[in-house]
Write a structure and sequence with these properties.
about 325 residues, alpha/beta, 5-stranded parallel β-sheet, 12 helices, globular, binds 1,4-dihydronicotinamide adenine dinucleotide, D-isomer_DH_CS, D-lactate dehydrogenase, NAD
Length: about 325
């Protein structure tokens, strides 16, 4: 089976090669994203593999079908960038990697909390310049604080367990409460109550019609003044301009983002010699109490290997025409 791998960085190529060598898969690696502009690259391939910011819309899917592509193997958990209905209509099979390392993303959410709280991003630069003054670096103890987790699936559950370990009171909201988390001492409450009671709110639900711009003027109004908001899920869960307004007013005291609504134009690339054409994003970076990372929550050795192994496994199962649990459409 010939596979065109899109959005492929050197680290992806290393792990995918090590897992697909000595199999019947023939992988060709492209740095570019799959979109209408790059669709001509798929000529002669049986399958494509994509990542979070490839634009797998209905038009792309239609052309994939015309080119003879029979499957799309996503190398990520989220699938909001794929038109599943169009894939189903065209008879293209979609696979994803549902649980490559919930711990990786959960630990990154905690890293953002710790950085924002103890201001290590600022301390690092101060100490390098010989400035050992502590004014402006005051943090707070996590023990005893109330942490709200929205979405308690694989990543949210891992996050809740870590925060319980810090001695936090963990409040949860999910459409499907987890008895395991309740048994571990977490408490499910309504979304409004979670907003009202939490010192820290971490987002771990998927992006869909009901969660789009979940963090907006209405929800922010219900939160404590100075709340910390962490988003490692999908950028469009947060209305960026409303978050900036709330940073100016002090409603948001700390903002940690690993994802951004318009990230597909900038993330995963070296933009250091370019002028980033996004004034909202540029403004966000100027706040001392905002930490942004470039969608690296998943980026651990363990997760990369799991992604590669599962992607290869998905393609081989498709080749053998077995129906499979990781098949989305
Ligand atoms: P999951 O499917 O295991 O859990 C998602 C949970 O959200 C489920 O329990 C579901 O019931 C809940 N949910 C759905 N709609 C909801 C709503 N309206 N309100 C509250 N809860 C709702 O997914 P998993 O693996 O935990 O991943 C969560 C998200 O994390 C993914 O959708 C993806 O967007 C993001 N992600 C980010 C990565 C990164 O590198 N930053 C890497 C992997 C995933």
């Amino acid at each position: 089976m010939k596979v065109a791998v899109f959005s492929c960085k050197p680290y992806d190529k290393r792990t995918l090669s090590s897992h697909s060598d000595n199999t019947s898969l023939s992988m060709t690696y492209f740095e570019s994203r799959l979109s209408m502009e790059t669709i001509s690259l798929v000529k002669g391939f049986d399958a494509v593999s994509c990542f979070v910011n490839d634009d797998v819309n209905a038009d792309v899917i239609h052309l994939l079908k015309q080119q003879g592509v029979s499957t799309i193997a996503l190398r990520c958990a989220g699938f909001n960038n794929v038109d599943l209905d169009a894939a189903k209509a065209e008879g293209i099979k979609i696979f994803h990697v549902p649980d490559y390392s919930p711990t990786s993303v959960a630990e990154h959410a905690v890293a953002l909390i710790m950085t924002l709280n103890r201001k290590t991003h600022r301390a690092y630069h101060r100490v390098k310049e010989g400035n050992f003054a502590l004014e402006g670096l005051l943090g707070f103890n996590l023990e005893g604080k109330t942490v709200g987790c929205i979405g308690t699936g694989r990543i949210g559950a891992a996050f809740c367990r870590i925060m319980k370990g810090f001695g936090c009171h963990v409040l949860c909201y999910d459409l499907y409460p987890s008895q395991t988390l309740i048994d571990q001492g977490c408490e499910y409450i309504s979304l409004d109550e979670l907003y009202q009671k939490s010192d820290i709110i971490s987002l771990h639900c998927p992006l869909n019609a009901s969660t789009h711009h979940l963090i907006n003027t209405d929800s922010l109004e219900k939160m404590k003044d100075g709340v910390m908001i962490i988003n490692t899920s999908r950028g469009a869960l947060v209305h960026a301009q409303k978050a900036i307004d709330a940073l100016y007013s002090g409603k948001i005291g700390y903002l940690g983002l690993d994802v951004y609504e318009q990230e597909n134009k900038i993330f995963f690339e070296d933009m250091s010699s370019h002028i980033i054409q996004d004034s909202v994003f540029q403004l966000m970076l100027t706040f001392p109490n905002v930490v942004v990372t470039g969608h690296q929550g998943y980026f651990t050795d363990e997760a990369l290997n799991h992604i590669a192994a599962t992607t290869v496994d998905n393609l081989l199962h498709h080749q053998n025409e077995e129906s499979y649990a990781r098949q989305l459409a």
